[in-house]
Specification:
Layout: H1 2-16, E1 17-26, E2 29-34, E3 39-43, E4 64-69, E5 76-81, E6 87-91, E7 99-104, E8 108-114, H2 122-135, E9 139-144, H3 151-164, E10 167-170, H4 179-183, E11 189-193, H5 200-207, E12 233-237, E13 241-245, H6 290-296, H7 302-324
Parallel strand pairs: 8-9, 8-11, 9-10, 11-13
Antiparallel strand pairs: 1-2, 1-4, 2-3, 4-5, 6-7, 12-13
Helix pairs in contact: 2-7
Bound molecules: guanosine-5'-triphosphate (GTP), magnesium ion and zinc ion.
């Protein structure tokens, strides 16, 4: 009997199980665009284990999923998240040690910063670049609001990062300068990420006016954004592409990173890896260190080295915390 039932059920199953792309997630609902072009808002279960390091949510934008639709298609459930090609993640805010996955299966990430309001901050940009490197997703940089600074200020910041090998576009959406060069950065499935108030939603509205995303003035007194976008959403862009508008991020910390891997997040250090006198060199104060030699001869900038030291100190602190809370049993050594 069971066999007949499951057999009879299977022809129906074909009709009610569909594959699709996650466009948006909110609490435990997500919007899925099926391969047949229909949109459904369906549930997913948060299978969060405690005590173990896990992600804050099991389903993110960009995920490919299989959905089971209930009869009449009134509701549905994500049955399976297909393996991810890549994932962009940061350390979840708070002292959780958890991984906050921002998006999956991206072809590129566009890191948006403003030159003023909020002010450009190289160390913050370096953290965004670091998580993109860790994810192995090609990153480009947009420096917006060039109308608020001198031309030399914009080009100086841009040149520093171009020299490392990143594509950098300086633009002003307000003055309509550089808009098309920014459009050129969005190919395949991309995500715009950055702090609040830098103009991510304004950029997308300018490139695709029908989107009508909500934007808001930054706080005049503090120069900080107001966290206007609250949910990440993957939006159809052009005929074939998708682009995500995401909420401004207050903090970017690395997670699931070993202290020996920090250098690999700095593109200009990649050719130097393995060339120090000691194989376990952390490039802090060891003798015969080629990274510190690069700082001394100016080929690795002081600002980028300062960013390296900050990320290293986070990694060491996280390791110490894991060791104290019993998450790792490996002996602690600096
Ligand atoms: N001066 C100037 N202001 C701009 C420019 N681009 C955007 N803005 C303004 O910056 C403010 C913030 O823009 P949003 O698009 O809301 O910023 P966001 O990055 O989406 O911010 P969150 O959604 O909070 O993460 C708005 O008042 C925009 O009009 C620009 O090129 N120059
Ligand atoms: Mg926004
Ligand atoms: Zn070294």
């Amino acid at each position: 009997l069971a066999e007949t039932l499951s057999h009879r059920g299977s022809s129906q199953d074909l009709l009610v199980r569909v594959d699709g792309l996650v466009l948006r997630t909110e609490s435990n609902l997500c919007t899925v665009l099926t391969d047949l072009g229909e949109r459904f808002v369906v549930n997913y279960t948060r299978r969060l284990k405690t005590g173990e390091r896990v992600a804050t949510t099991p389903v993110v934008i960009g995920d490919r999923v299989r959905v089971r639709l209930e009869p009449e298609r009134a509701s549905g459930l994500v049955e399976e998240v297909y393996p991810r090609r890549n994932e962009l993640y940061r350390l979840a805010p708070g002292r959780t040690g958890m991984k906050d996955v921002l998006a999956a299966n991206l072809d590129s990430v566009v890191i948006v910063q403003s030159l003023r309001m909020p002010d450009f901050n190289a160390s913050r940009l370096d953290r965004f670049l670091a998580i993109a490197e860790q994810a192995g997703i090609p990153a480009a940089v947009v420096l917006n609001k060039s109308d608020l600074v001198s031309q030399s200020e914009g080009s100086e910041a841009a040149e520093a990062y171009r020299a490392i090998g990143y594509q950098v576009e300086v633009c002003s959406i307000r003055a309509k300068l550089g808009v098309e060069r920014v459009r050129g950065l969005i190919k395949g499935t991309s995500a715009l990420i950055g702090p609040s108030g830098v103009g991510k939603s304004t950029i997308l509205n300018c490139l695709s006016p029908k989107l009508k995303l909500r934007t808001a003035e930054v706080n005049e007194a503090t120069g900080k954004g107001r966290h206007t976008t609250v949910v990440s959403e993957l939006l159809p862009f052009g005929d074939l592409d998708y682009v995500a508008d995401t909420p401004g991020l207050r903090s970017i910390g690395v997670v699931e990173l070993d202290k020996y891997e920090v250098a690999s997040l700095f593109r200009e250090l990649q050719p130097l890896i393995g060339k120090c006198r000691f194989a376990d060199c952390l490039h802090l104060s060891e003798p015969g260190c080629v990274v510190r030699a690069a700082v001394n001869d100016g080929s690795f900038s002081d600002e980028r080295y300062a960013s390296y030291q900050r990320i290293m100190s986070d990694v060491i602190q996280a390791y110490r915390q894991d060791w104290e809370t019993g998450r790792t049993s490996a002996p602690f050594e600096l």
